[in-house]
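Protein 1 of 2
SEQ + STRUCT:
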Amino acid sequence: MKKIEKIDCEGKEYPKKLLAIKNSPKIIYAIGNISLLNSNKKSIAIIGSRDCTEYGRNTAFKFANSLAKAGNTIISGMAIGIDAVSHIGAMEEIGRTIAVLGGGFNKIYPKQNEWLFYEIIKNKGCIISEYEPNEEASSEKFLQRNRIVSGLSDAVLVVEAEYRSGTSVTAKIAKEQNKILFAVPSNLESKNGIGTNKLLQEGAKIAIDYKDIIKELKTKNEKIKSKKMQENLEIVNENKEYIELKEEYKPIYNLLLSNPKNINELSKMLDVSISKLNSILTFMQIEGIVKQLPGNEFIVNGESKCIKNM
């Protein structure tokens, strides 16, 4: 087995996404391709019922496989059922998958998935745990593990879930962490469809194709970029030098804000003589407030300093 890395929350390998969640682990243990923990690729958690249906298995595999093929990292909990199928689906493409355990590396649970543990490492995936290598897994640890599964992701996809289950808890955590939550619609008569259909009813985004997830992540990314640009613009504006307009400038400035105007138009609109207007406009040009265009037209100078109290 490869070397186990112990990563402190202040270390550069520590997943930056986990620093943003409530009650983030102070230390994580990792084995395999730890570069996935801070990859610039998007990561999607795929979760669902342990006692999944054939429909659930096929759906989880298809989504994981297609999303991995598109360059995304698939995250799950290496449990039997939907978790295991999701890891396998991702590995069939390029092995870009992360498993989060609810116990230590030397106490793999469930035992029947021990082969999957080694397969993920072999295929350049990564496995992490907040528990020391010899700690036994437990139901309480699985619930704690769920906040990390969601925390590492950009979006969470629920394939199948019973009404009250660990999967539903993870979905709730995803909402609290402001992750994009998706659910696959299910048969109304299936017990494994109650949880997913309820999530959709409560506002989760519907996923009928892996492209639905990619599109939504792209939209969110564009919104974040737009918000950052706006914040940067506000910072620039805060640092701009403001000038106070003289009272005699204000009527002219207001008329030129929308579009250029000829000096003759301004004279009529303001009932001011052309000679006086010429004098005022000359000073406004010198101060950089307006600029002259061909045809004796004037407009507010877009490169001028900000105007205060207008």
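Protein 2 of 2
SEQ + STRUCT:
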Amino acid sequence: MKTMGEYGRYLMASVIVLIGLTGIYYGGYAVWAGLLAFLVLAALDLTAGKDASARGGPGKWFYNGVLYLPLVPLYVMWIFFAFRIAEGNLGLINSVGAIISVSFLTALAGLPTAHELMHRKHPLEIFASSLYLTLVGLPMNDLYHVHGHHPLVGTLEDSDTPRRGQTVYGFVYSSLFHGTLIAYGIEKARLAKLGHGPLWWRGRVLQALLSVIVWVSIFCYLAGPMGIVYLVATEAVTLLVLGGFNYTQHYGIVRAPGSPILPHHSWNHLNTFSRAITFEISNHSEHHLDPDKFYELLKTYPEAPQMPSIVLCFLASFIPPLWEKKIAKPLLQHWDTHYANPVEQRLAMEENARAGWLQWVNPKAAQDSLT
């Protein structure tokens, strides 16, 4: 019974994509099906409570293979979306429904699988990750995530660690833009060591450009004159959804540059359904301790800093006063007083001062304790 549950757990991402795909195929009000499937999962996640149990049951073949299952259905969903656009009869309401459904499903089913695969070593796994990311125009995102975000997490140098007082709206696109620039710099430096320019035919930069150009061309050809408008709108919403979930993973946490990465340098969201649909990305502490460990082997660290359901945090983050007052400030005050070491307490109070927040830890006492 446990094994059957484990199969169903990690097949949910593929199932909701198939639901969304079917809705887009039939058109009309059915285009909202993908969003409705997400809302059902969100409601289940909010009511199911915490789950700190270890994973395990099926063989390695399942845990690896299930990462590839959403890839083709996601592309098919986008192609059906292009067909609906070309027909020109979606209407305003159903256009909004289609954009939101495709955006949410691309972010929720495509990006966690891409994230897991980008931490693997085999070229096929990296290639599959880049195919997922091509859907949102970020086929080189793995370079910054693996070589930038992970070693820099919690420091001011990491654009994927939101600072205290920073809204999700100010975080999302600036972090993606910065990450793209750094990824380009990483690949440019790698190719220079090999004696090649950044656009070498076997380099990631040219491959990324070509993959995006090919995908955009196919979509716009199928969708017709309005294709580019729908494409830009849908990708913008997808990136906002991606950034919104990313925002809650490290919000406000600080770490001194060069210091060891410890379990308290990430927020965990250990709810049943969010763990499953994100392929354990919400089980974040262990992932940062050992980025190469496969998702099904991650420990849960229930004693590490915890946030409520990632769905609840995601929704609240788009209402900044609610996010700060009800979730962020209380949890960060607890983090500063129960998890942070003296150096981190000083850094935290510097961030509080910059954000205009209260100084709930005495920064002088924290500093004096070091001397």
